[in-house]
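Entry for the shared binder. Reason: the reviewer on the internal report wants the predicted structure included alongside the sequence.
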Amino acid sequence: MIREGITIVTPPAFYPVTLEGAKDHLNVTHGTDDAYIAELIRAAAEWCEARQGLAYVETVYRQTLDELCGMIRLLRWPIVSVDSIKYDDADGIEQTLAASKYRLGAHRAPAIIEAAWNESWPATRAQTGAVRVTFTAGFASADRAPRKVRQAMLLLIEAWYGERRGYVTGTIVTELPGPSGIEALLSPDAVNWV
C-alpha cells in the first residue's frame, strides 16, 4: 500500500477571505475575537482547498510518499514549481533527485510528476515517507478565487464561529441541501478556474 500525505511548509501570505470581510459577514464590530476569526479563515481555506485539491493562494507544500513509482499525483493545483524531490536511498541516505530526471505535467489538475524520457525512478528505502516532494502551488492573487469559494469559506467560518458562541445546533453547514450548501459551492461544476 502506497501512502501519501501533504503538509504546508510555508503558509500563504493572505487568504481569499480577509479578516474585515469575515467580520462583516459575521456582523462582528469589536476586535475581541480577531485572532480567533483569523484562525477560522485559515482553517476554512485549508478545508476548502483539501476538498477541491486546489491552492487558492501561493503556498509551499511537502507531499510525502512511500516510494517512487509510476506517476506522482500532486495533491494541490495549480502548480507554480517543483522545488525539490528528496528520497531516502536503499542505504537510508537522503538524496535529491535532479530536475533532469523527472518531468512535470502541470497543464491540468491533478498535476503529475513522472520519470523523464529514458529515465527510471531510483530505488528508495522500503519505509514510510521515503519520498518528499516540495512544491509551490496556488495563484499569485487572492482575487483569482471565485466568489463561490469565498462564499463557501464564509459559510464555514459562520458555522464554526456560531458553534463557539452557541448559535448553531444540529448538523454543520456542509450538509445543507441546495445551492447554498458548501459542498454545492465547491463542486467541480460550480467553480471554473480557467
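Summary line for the report: The chain has two domains: 4-56+142-186, 59-137.
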